[in-house]
Amino acid sequence: MTETVEKTPNGAVLYDRLVISEITEDRFRPEGWLHAEPVAGSHGSTGRGNTMFVGNIPRQFVLRHFMRGGLIGKVVRDKYLWTGEETTRSFAEWRMLAKMADSGLRVPRPAAARYCRFGPFYTADIITVRIPQVRSLSVLLAEEKFGEEFWSELGKSIQSFHAAGIYHADMNAHNLQIDAKQQLWMLDFDRGRLLSPGPWQQRTLSRLHRSLEKVRALNPALNFGNDDWEALLAGYFDASRSA
């Protein structure tokens, strides 16, 4: 990784020269690319329409504008309180992704990030390399039925992130992506952190379980049941014991 930070009139851009040799602020807008299309959200996804596929195959990127969720998002859509460059949502996520990707974890390779400061507030954007042939777990389960081995391997893969101290603030059925080899990739590490082992690991598993149950409530035909969840947990704890 070759990290470069360049100041802009009202902020800064962070990028990896090995991924993108040069970057301009135009690239943080869909109009700055010859090709741009919205990322379609899966049924029940909480995505806020802030993510685009940009660039051309075979090298495409994902451009995401940071948006607030929850009740505060109804009042303040995309502005965050300025507390310093290192704590901006975009720079923090970029650097966390870079560490994970360099460690061999299956996450998107970060390409570029920026922030734009407006007095005591800022907005943020991030560009990552698009992972080929992945689908969200929620979409996949609406189309296919998987056996015990799939769920056990999924649990083992989640445990590999936890063993590395990776805390995902919103691990759900939409942010877990499965590739053509049925391998797990994790997306969207906004507010993610590196932590020592602790109760947060169980909390993230519980969050994923609630997400799967919510998707099943929206689609009763979803190929997910209690036996599947038990197989996931068995794979997770088997991996924990052998670590």
Q: Secondary-structure blueprint of this entry?
A:
Layout: E1 3-8, E2 11-16, E3 36-38, E4 51-56, E5 59-65, E6 80-81, H1 89-102, E7 110-118, E8 121-129, E9 135-136, H2 137-143, H3 148-163, E10 166-167, E11 176-178, E12 184-186, E13 193-194, H4 200-218, H5 226-242
Antiparallel strand pairs: 1-2, 2-7, 3-4, 4-5, 5-8, 6-8, 7-8, 9-11, 10-13, 11-12
Helix pairs in contact: 3-5
Tell me what you see in this structure.
With 243 residues, the protein is an alpha+beta fold. It folds into 2 domains: 3-129; 135-242, Transferase(Phosphotransferase) domain 1 (Transferase(Phosphotransferase), domain 1, Orthogonal Bundle). The chain has 5 helices and 13 strands. The strands form 3 sheets. Strands 1, 2, 3, 4, 5, 6, 7 and 8 form an 8-stranded antiparallel β-sheet that branches. The longest helix has 19 residues, at 200-218.
